[in-house]
Amino acid sequence: MLYIGLVFAGILAWTISTLTAGGAAMLVIPVLGVLLGVELVAPILSVATVMANPARALMFRKFIRMDVIRWLLPGSLFGAIFGSWLLSRSNPIWIQLLLGIFLGSIMLQYRWGKSGRSFAVPGWWFLPIGIVVASLSALTGATGPVLNPFLLNYGLIKEDMIGTKSFNSLFMQLTKVGAYISLGIMSQQAWLAGLALGSGAIFGAYLAKQQLLKISPAQFRMGVLMMMTISGIVMLVDALRRLLSVG
After folding, report:
1. Contact (CB, 8 A) for 68 and 166
2. At a CB cut-off of 8 Å and minimum separation 6, what does 215 contact?
3. Taken in order 222, 224, 227, 232, is the CA torsion positive or negative?
4. CA 167 – CA 163 distance, rounded (Å)
5. Where are the domains of the chain?
6. This model's pTM is above 0.85
7. Residue 73: its pLDDT value, please?
8. Which of 9, 154, 194, 223 lies at a C-alpha separation of 20 to 30 Å from 34?
9. How far does CA 177 lie from the centroid of its chain?
10. Pair 146, 102: CB distance under 8 Å
């Protein structure tokens, strides 16, 4: 029953995240943490994302922005390895807490959706951004929405954002899984749970594609901002819960 439930969780989470350019992992982090343990969250999510992203990248291959990828991908690959190494030697709760605060304040940063851009983003910024976001992703299991403010401020929207993020994330997550294996972090349960979640994720991405075409750029942008805010709140609550349980 656990794995069947994870399939349906993957369908729901990745349908929503495809329509809002990320946030699927944020929606399932609390569930995975409670059912399978915090230490398995990042490996499970990496396996599921490796399964889902080829489908999304293929669906939106015409919209992949290589001007972003040429900077973002090298940083993401380095950050995935570095963050995986840190995961085996650190406690990511405090990082998750800070990320929750940052994402939870996104609507304020964008003046409740009224502001078009909150800051300018040159293309080369995506190299250090990729390092930081991938490192944090390896530590906490999910930081997809952290990248969204930078992509929005660079000018990406809708299919451009989803195609570019999916292409980059595919190689980043493959690198993370390889690093997890070499560091002995992966387990049989992580593989099985990740495969179940990923199976649902593929179907969820397919369901969302046709709906995305019907959404206007303004509606998509507001959905992205709302998902970032919700993801931040979820991360914040989960981090606080874990801190209180430890105390």
Report:
1. no
2. 19, 158, 223
3. negative
4. 6
5. 2-246
6. no
7. 94
8. 223
9. 15
10. yes
CA angle 212, 115, 210 (to 5 degrees): 0
List the single range of 11-25, 139-153, 175-189 with lowest mean pLDDT. Answer: 139-153
Q: Which two tokens stand for residue 142?
A: 């999910």
pLDDT at res. 132: 86
pLDDT in tens, 222-233: 877 777 777 777
Under the phi-then-psi rule, with left for phi > 0, alpha for psi from -120 to 50, and beta for the rest, what region is 194?
Answer: alpha
Token pair of 73, please? 């991908």
Residues 6+ apart with CB under 8 A from 184: 88
In our burial notation (b when 16+ CB lie closer than 10 A, e otherwise), range 113-131 reads eeeeeeeebeeebbbebbb
Residue whose tokens read 């099985």: 192
pLDDT in tens, 70-80: 999 999 899 88
Please determine, for residue 213, whether its predicted confidence score (pLDDT) is greater than 90: no
CA atoms within 13 A on the CB side of 37: 6
Q: With pLDDT > 70 as the criterion, what percentage of the chain qualifies?
A: 85
Nearest one of 137, 241, 222, 208 to 179, comparing CA atoms: 137
CA distance linking residue 241 with residue 29, whole number of Å: 13
For residue 160 the two structure tokens come to: 């451009």
Please give the Cα distance from 141 to 39 (Å, whole number). Answer: 10
Asked whether the predicted pLDDT for residue 112 surpasses 70, the reply is no
**Contact criterion met (CB below 8 Å) for 135 and 82:** yes
Helical segments of 118-216, H only: 126-140, 144-154, 159-182, 188-213
